[in-house]
Amino acid sequence: TxxxxxxxxxxxxxxxxxxxxxxxxxxxxxxxxxxxxxxxGPAVVCLPHRDAQNDACNFYHITALAWYDxxxxxxxxxxxxxxxxxxxxxxxxxxxxxxxxxxxxxxKPHEFHQLVTQYCAGGLLRWVDAGF
Length: 132
Hints:
This protein is an alpha+beta fold. It has helices at residues 4-20, 122-129; strands at 35-39, 60-67, 76-78, 83-85, 92-95, 102-104, 112-119.
């Protein structure tokens, strides 16, 4: 909604990749992202970090698959912005993970927290730009 040019740029490059290598398959039919990680807990905590290998111009898609009280834990932390954001179960957020340090806050011991992340490696898009 807010950065359609970012989406379309990645879409064009990935379309070229899939055309050039027709044996490649999408992870999910309804997602543009070529990579996904499943952090399956039961109580996933990510220490503050940057994903330097991700494409700096694209977003990292995080979805919480969980049962926890979002008022007391599971928050997304964005260090450079000095922000702590409530992140309820079944929520998704898009962040530029290569340039913003991010992590999350622990949940209570009896709660459940898993994350699915989708992203695009910067090297993949540079490889397409370089003519494969």
